[in-house]
Structures are given as structure tokens and as C-alpha cells.
Amino acid sequence: MLTPASRRRDFPALDSMTYLNTAAESIPPLCVGEALQTYWQDKLCGMRGRDAHFKQVEACREVAARMIRLQPGEVSFCSCSSEAYNLLATALNLQPSDEVVVTNLDFPAGATPWLTAATRPQTRVWQARNGELQVDDLVPLLNARTQLVQVSLVSFYSGHRLAWAPFRDAVRRLAPNALISVDVTQALGRVVLDCVDADCLISSTHKWTLAVHGGCIVGIPERAATRLTTHAGGWFHLRNAFEADRFQRADMKAGAASFSVGMPNFAAIYALNAALRYVEGVGVEAISKQADPLVAEVHAGLVELGLKPLAPAQPTNPTGILAFLHPDTAAIHAALEREKIHVMHHAGRIRIAVAGYNTAEDVGRLLAGLAGALK
Fold first, then answer.
1. Are strands 179-183 and 122-126 parallel, antiparallel or unpaired?
2. Residue 210 CB coordination number (10 Å)
3. φ, ψ for residue 17, nearest 5 deg
4. Which of 280, 312, 333 is the last residue of a domain?
5. What whole-number distance in Å separates Cα of residue 172 and Cα of residue 190?
């Protein structure tokens, strides 16, 4: 990932394209494919294969806990971030008098469960200003009725990174009853996390963690476990799933364990275990150190081309994402695709993602391609 030789060895698919779309889908290293083959071989053992399956779950829990700086007992898995947030909503069981704060830079998975609840709380939106979430704009939204503040550490939309400490301090001071939930999908595996004192951390697994679909990491520290225990049906999250009293009561495991309501997606767990260990072996700090200067180069290049990045330059706290608006994004995207330069375009927005496997040559091809498309 950090040298031409290791990049070629671990990511051979990158030899044929310039891939700058990890914020949507990663290119997994070959070890992830090997892990999926191991799952297949274990699965061929039938019921006996479950011993290996559950060993993978515990191994994945261990490495995931290290990555988000929690204890293994504070980490579990479900199928996707949307499932995690809907389970979070069952745990909170909010009422019309309660308030939730979300941001207009959040992904829908974290922002919409409060709008679809049978009993809807009042939802307040923290609006970005000049591309940034500023704590001064959050302060008027916080009060004793605030039960949850939901944010993304890094915005999927623009790449803006939340200034964590001032945000956290404002919530703890002004909303004493509020839990803080943070989506780290666009951060985990790409930037060093500084939000580990949140009450709930949620991450999809098919982006910067370099794994596949069908997984989601849920981290809930022990201090928040009682309040953040889901009220969903199922069996895997129950202590008494097969006990004599199972039809009289459901005794749920507390906190993160309650988010694993059914049989784990073992294939996704095998892949995630391999991917996280690969990222851990390279080192998130090393990934950031290599990729962050490329992000700065892309930002400067966009400005030079007359394009305005949606988030301000973040030299001291960069992320892997840059984005801009343009009336002809479809044409720009098509021109880049013809050159095998892969970025995301949606609703008038082009989004560029710079990962640890990207190179200065990738950035040069991108900026040259954009210059040609804009003529």
C-alpha cells in the first residue's frame, strides 16, 4: 500500500485504472479475497464449520476494538449502518417531547430513523456554514430535552471533518441528557480517530476499512450500555434465547452486543477481520501521512481550475474526501471515465476520494483529466 511493490502485490486491480472512489467502494487487498475463500472452505464443513465461523467473529471483534479504541466486549457487528441506526432508535425509544440533533452533512442512514419513528421526536438540523459545522451554530439547538446528537466525523458529502473536542464539550455542557452518536464510516481506516469518547460509534465496512458489503461495526462503551440496549426481536442478542422461559421474556445482552440480533454474516466478518488486520499492519498514521499531501494537492489543483471545494482546506486535520459542485458533472464524469479515472458523481456533485493506495501519478491524471473535461 505504501510502496509501488506492495501496491502492485496487494491491489493488482489498480494497475488498470486510476481509482479515486474509495468513499463509495474500496478496492480490497488480495488478503480479503483469500479470507472469503477460507470462509467458503469452512462453510463446506456444514455445522462443524461454525466453530471456525465464531472464532473469526471473536478475532474480528478484537481487532475492531483496537481500531476504535474500545474493549472487545464493547464492540459487535450487524449488517449495515442503516440497520445499526434503526436499532439505535429502538434503544432510545424517543417521545414527541424529546429532541434529536442531526447535521445537513450526514448520510441518510444516521439522519432519517428519527423521521420515520412511530412516535417521532423533534428533529433539529445543525446546518453547515461556509462548508463547515461551527459549534456556535450548534449551541442554540442544545437543551435539556436533547436526547441524541448524531454526527459524522467525516462528511460523506463534502469531506468536512468535525472539530471533535469543541463539539463534544458543547454537547456535554448544554445537553446533559444527550448521547453522542458518531458515524465513522468515512474515517475508520483512513484517519486517526479522535472521537473515541462518543457514546456510540458506527461504521460500514466496504469503504476505507477495505472490506466488503454486509457488515457494520458498532461500538458502545460500557458506561452507555444500559441506555443503548436495543429492543428488537431476534435471538443472537438474547441471553435466554433457548431457555425454558424464552416465550415469557426476552433477556437482552446489554449495549453493543444487543445490536447483533441474528446470525452474523460470517462471510463479511471473515473479510472484515482480514481487512482490518491489513490496515492495522500498514498503520492508519502511515496511511494518512502518505495520502494527506495528495489531498492537499488535489484541493490546490481544483482551486487552480476554478472549482470550489465544498469543504475548506483542512491542513491540520485532513480527510480523504474532496467534492465540488458543477452544472455539467455528468459530462465531466463521463470524460474521466473514458480515461479510466473513477470518481463519484451525483446530483451535480463530483466527489474525489484519496486512499492509502493512491499515488501522485493518480492525482496528476485526475487533474489533467479535469482540465481536459472543463475545456
1. unpaired
2. 30
3. -160, 165
4. 280
5. 27
Q: What is the pLDDT of residues 9-44, one digit of tens each?
A: 999 999 999 999 999 999 999 999 999 999 999 999
Sheet holding 179-183, edge to edge: 75-78, 216-219, 200-204, 179-183, 146-152, 99-103, 122-126
Cβ 205 vs Cβ 80: under 8 Å: no
> Are 49 and 173 in a shared domain?
yes
* Pairing outcome for strands 75-78 and 122-126: unpaired
- Same domain as 170, residue 101: yes
**What total of structural domains would you count in the chain?**
2
Per-residue model confidence as pLDDT tens digits over 257-295:
999 999 999 999 999 999 999 999 999 999 999 999 999
Do residues 161 and 304 both lie within one domain? no
- Cβ contacts of 43-50, under 8 Å, gap ≥ 24: 43/266
What integer pLDDT is reported at residue 321 of this predicted model?
98
pLDDT at res. 1: 77
What is the domain-level CATH number for residue 311?
Answer: 3.90.1150.10
350 and 298 Cβ atoms separated by less than 8 Å: no
Residues in the chain: 375
Query: pTM surpassing 0.85?
Result: yes
CA separation, residue 341 to residues 15, 108, 263, 321, 362 (Å): 12, 27, 39, 16, 8
Comparing C-alpha atoms, which of 184, 151, 169, 188 is closest to residue 279? 188
Task: State whether 260 and 307 are in the same domain.
Answer: no
For residues 61 and 114, membership in a common domain is answered with: yes
Which domain covers residue 161, as residue numbers?
A: 32-280
